Amino acid sequence: MRFHREYIGNIVILEPPSNLFGGDETDEIRDEIHAQLAAGRRRFVIDLRRTENMNTPAITMFQRVLADLEDVGAIWAFCNVDRKIEHPLVVLKLVRLFNVCDTRQEALRFLTPEPVEAWNEAREHA
Question: Does the reported pTM lie above 0.85?
Answer without folding.
Answer: no
